[in-house]
Amino acid sequence: ATGDRPARYPEAALAARAARVLRDNDTGAVITAAPRLYPHMWSWDAAFISIGLARLDVQRAIAELETLFAAQWRNGMVPHIVFTDDDAYFPGPDRWGTEAAPDGPRNVRTSGICQPPVHAIAVQRVLEVARRSSPDDRRAAERFARKIWPALYAWHRWLVEYRTPGSSGLVAIVHGWESGMDNSPRWDVPYDAVHPGAALPPYVRKDVRVVGDASERPTDREYDRYLWLIEEMRRAGYDQRKIVENSSFLVGDVFITALFAISCDVLVELGEEFGQPAGELADLADWAEKARAAVAGSCHSVSGMARDRDLRTSRWLDTQTIAGFSPLLCGGAPDDVQLRLLSLLDSERWCGHEGLLAPVPPSVSPLRPGFNPRQYWRGPQWPVVAWVFFWAFEHRGWHERARKLRDAGIRLTEDGAFGEYYEPFTGKPLGSADQSWTAAVVLDWLC
Ligand code: 9YW
Fold it and tell me: For ligand 1, is residue 238 a contact (CB within 6 Å)?
């Protein structure tokens, strides 16, 4: 072990610690994304958290997803943050000002954007775990899956109706936060075209106070842009059509598009089982097919890597990041492209890099100029992203690959810190400690 990694927990002790993290982050109402840095419920975090929770308490896992979906907007959007009363995070509900949004929920305060659609995957995973757990859990999870299905369908429908503009077929985001990979170099070019106006209300960041080393977080320049986009949305009254038409940032996100495709597949599987309307099942199958085609259509002709598309300039974004492997999540690209991507993933440019503590794909290739091993989505490894690939590989029947990724994920996290992200060479946990989704995916791997 390096100096940064004092402990190495055996699996049973690691699972016990992970369970403890989830219990400690439980306010009684929600499990916060992290104890101090993120004292609210985040949309895709809640999905992964419920997957881990199912291993501890199926009813609690269901409650978490119910809480998230109780905040679903009337137009179908699942908001990226559901706020608790804690005011330690910025931007909080006042800055978002979504009360003014005609489609917002009534009894709860939320942000005004979304995050990746992984919720159907969570519902299915919770159901699988519940079926092996007890007859009561099975009944509760089946009741829940049946009840939440229409809300999941409405969420997917929203992404198609409002967020699939133009002809690329990619699901579009209007803020880097929607991607879940906030400051990834994927968004550098589109953010360069965001010019914060003089009317940007002043603000004070709180994240840099919690994470002692500010260089592990996005920069102030980036934050100005994040907040300017919120300002634009407020001014548009959170009218989705206006936002998609006018916001200074509109990007087809290939990673979200791949997740959307597989979540549609899962929703079809659940819908068939629970007798949901045939027309809606047909919609989902159609959306999945189109999303897959969009992901395949984005692949670079030489590298095979999938690309985001700046929908304001109609240009492909060639920055190579973990999102380039999106076709491995959802399939649909020609076999030779997938094989190229698999060998790239195994190569020294990614998981095969000899300096890595564990062969978990970093957010950016360590051989790419601009790779920063400590800064957020610009280099570190994120266990939750490894879990997404693990799940997809299992789903595709690539069991050996899935097992290797799981082992690598455990190797990375067996220090028991449950870091938000990790320095790939030393394995030092960075950002927040006791991050809920890290604990949750480790629990899923271990149980
Ligand atoms: C922020 C909660 C969230 C994740 C995002 C991640 C980060 C929040 O934390 O964003 O303020 O920076 O980028 O994917 O959902 O864990």
Answer: no
